[in-house]
């Protein structure tokens, strides 16, 4: 599939309120930093549980690391569309790349949610109810990230 070259002048979408967009980008970065720091507890705790031989820590270790990577990907995707032009406009090509990143992230998060559910159910059948609890808890965070990435995609698709 071949695409036509993009004219640099037509690639930008002017923003109605650039100051609001800059505030939104700052809030996204701040929230991303806070979430990555807070999710570190789940990743480290799950890894420590695994090191101690506690299998219920696996959802925390894997899910926490995936949640941290997802937060970083969402922040990077949001900032990717806002590069250049001093924040007065959005780049169509940057927004399209961000939409692709968010789409891939949503697919990855959905696969992880299904895998965590299957793993927790298998462990429950084997007599380990604690894995179900840890998988459900970290799945809540992954589900919220899945929904957030979908909301950003939906809003950007309608505006681009």
TrEMBL record:
Official protein name in the record: Uncharacterized protein
Keyword flag Transmembrane: yes
Key words, A-Z: Membrane, Transmembrane, Transmembrane helix
Transmembrane segment boundaries: 29-52, 58-79, 108-126, 132-149
Lineage, broadest ranks: Bacteria, Bacillati, Actinomycetota, Actinomycetes, Micromonosporales
